[in-house]
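Appendix C: a fully annotated inverse folding record. The material below is reproduced so that readers can follow the format used throughout the book. The structure is listed first as tokens, followed by the designed sequence.
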């Protein structure tokens, strides 16, 4: 990709994920489980994972979104939870995608589950109580459901994105 086009694409992905993060914060959470969220911003991460040839770009998009989201309304704890969840989630998704044996829905579902795992590990370290891990099965169920929904939405979005001329340009390497 040409440098200017590359910067524009990354900026668009970052802006979209940030907007989804902000919108999600305005929505009433319909879950019984406290702390469970839809993970709308992860939709952009999944799309970027499949649309962009360089995985370091996906990492950059995710990190910049977390930094900006923290700057807009989070403290150090929000940053720690977000970074840990994102690292676990993205790591799991990248490994599963690379095997080629998992669908987008499977990759996204793993991302939802591992995001919760990363956050629960940080929570247990912050409060110095391993018993918080008992909450993981509840969050794993929520992560599975939201991961499936994000995966289905990503499939639909990628199907339409691939029809656009811009998609071919995104696939070009340096």
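Designed amino acids, in order:
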């Amino acid at each position: 990709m040409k440098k200017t086009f590359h910067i524009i694409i990354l900026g668009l992905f970052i802006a979209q994920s940030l907007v989804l993060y902000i919108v999600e914060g305005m929505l009433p959470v319909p879950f019984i489980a406290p702390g469970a969220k839809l993970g709308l911003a992860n939709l952009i991460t999944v799309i970027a994972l499949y649309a962009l040839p360089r995985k370091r770009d996906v990492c950059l998009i995710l990190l910049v979104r977390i930094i900006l989201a923290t700057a807009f309304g989070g403290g150090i704890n929000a940053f720690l939870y977000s970074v840990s969840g994102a690292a676990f989630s993205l790591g799991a998704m990248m490994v599963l995608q690379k095997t080629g044996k998992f669908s987008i829905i499977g990759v996204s579902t793993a991302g939802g589950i591992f995001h919760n795992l990363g956050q629960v590990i940080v929570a247990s370290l912050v409060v110095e109580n391993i018993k918080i891990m008992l909450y993981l099965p509840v969050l794993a169920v929520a992560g599975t459901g939201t991961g499936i929904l994000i995966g289905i939405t990503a499939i639909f979005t990628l199907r339409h994105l691939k029809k656009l001329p811009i998609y071919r340009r995104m696939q070009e390497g340096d």
